[in-house]
């Protein structure tokens, strides 16, 4: 079946020092129709690709080494930043690869960038990999606003819109965030050294300013990274 084929293609493609085996899921294009109501100016799958039927969504989890390297200090580790840059490159290559493989199967696809799909003034995404990941049942949102999957939140999300149809999944009913399950946690809030993350809200502007400042630290790519709230917490590498 095409569903298992795509899962296999993605898992075979993602191999290297930074990554564990990815998680793959799918949602229907119809599931994206309400996203513009949640995020102003967000696109639907059909806005991106006419006659789209599905969104392929995948999470590429970082290794324990990458996640643990970023626990100490207030500046992102070199390994964390390098993993971010290399994973963005990987996602771009993977999406082109998937597009070609699906074309052979008779389907059209639209390649979506792994990051910087947002308005720098409003900081609102035109295409949110996190929201489509939620719609595809890959995980749920943590207080840190990232998606917590079965393999944690340390990693990168990618997605691809296509005219192919798959076995779809629904948003999870189980809550993966400990705090949202009613337990005492908020470790991610404690881990933010800049006060941008609160239990009730993320100060996106302050967070973004930190990310832009951190781009000056590295010379191997545009590493707008921090990740302190995701590292050294119960949901870093697995569902808590």
How is the topology of this model organized?
Blueprint: H1 2-13, E1 23-28, H2 35-38, H3 45-48, E2 54-61, H4 64-69, H5 78-104, E3 109-111, H6 129-135, E4 139-141, E5 147-149, E6 155-162, H7 187-191, H8 204-214
Antiparallel strand pairs: 1-2, 2-6, 3-6, 4-5
Which range best describes the helical content: under 10%, 10-25%, 25-40%, 40-55%, 55-70% or over 70%? 25-40%
Q: Termini distance?
A: 32 Å
CATH architecture assignment: 3-Layer(aba) Sandwich
Tally of helical segments: 8
Note the beta-strand portion: 5-15%
Précis, in short:
This protein is of the alpha+beta class and 240 residues long.
Can you give keywords for this protein?
8 helices, alpha+beta, NADH Oxidase, 240 residues, two-stranded antiparallel ribbon
Fold and architecture overview:
By secondary structure, the protein is an alpha+beta fold. The protein has a single domain, classed as NADH Oxidase, CATH 3.40.109. It contains 8 helices and 6 strands. It has helices spanning 2-13, 35-38, 45-48, 64-69, 78-104, 129-135, 187-191, 204-214, and strands spanning 23-28, 54-61, 109-111, 139-141, 147-149, 155-162. The strands form 2 sheets. The chain has a 4-stranded antiparallel β-sheet with strand order 1-2-6-3, sandwiched between helices. A hairpin with a 5-residue loop joins strand 4 and strand 5 (147-149). The radius of gyration is 17 Å and the shape is globular. The two termini are 32 Å apart.
């Amino acid at each position: 079946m095409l569903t298992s084929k795509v899962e296999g293609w993605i898992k075979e493609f993602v191999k290297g020092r930074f990554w564990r085996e990815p998680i793959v899921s799918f949602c229907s294009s119809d599931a994206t129709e309400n996203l513009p109501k949640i995020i102003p100016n967000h696109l639907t799958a059909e806005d991106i690709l006419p006659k789209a039927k599905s969104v392929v969504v995948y999470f590429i989890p970082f290794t324990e080494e990458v996640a643990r390297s970023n626990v100490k200090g207030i500046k992102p580790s070199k390994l964390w930043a390098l993993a971010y840059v290399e994973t963005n490159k990987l996602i771009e290559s993977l999406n082109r690869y998937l597009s070609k493989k699906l074309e052979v199967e008779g389907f059209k696809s639209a390649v979506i960038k792994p990051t910087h799909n947002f308005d720098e003034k409003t900081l609102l995404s035109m295409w949110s990999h996190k929201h489509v990941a939620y719609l595809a049942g890959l995980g749920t949102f943590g207080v840190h606003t990232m998606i917590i999957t079965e393999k944690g939140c340390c990693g990168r999300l990618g997605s691809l819109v296509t005219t192919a149809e798959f076995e779809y999944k629904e948003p999870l009913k189980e809550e993966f965030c400990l705090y949202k399950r009613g337990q005492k946690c908020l470790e991610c809030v404690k881990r933010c050294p800049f006060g941008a993350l609160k239990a009730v809200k993320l100060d996106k502007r302050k967070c973004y300013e930190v990310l832009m400042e951190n781009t000056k630290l590295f010379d191997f790519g545009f590493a707008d990274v921090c990740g302190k709230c995701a590292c050294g917490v119960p949901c870093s590498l697995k569902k808590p």
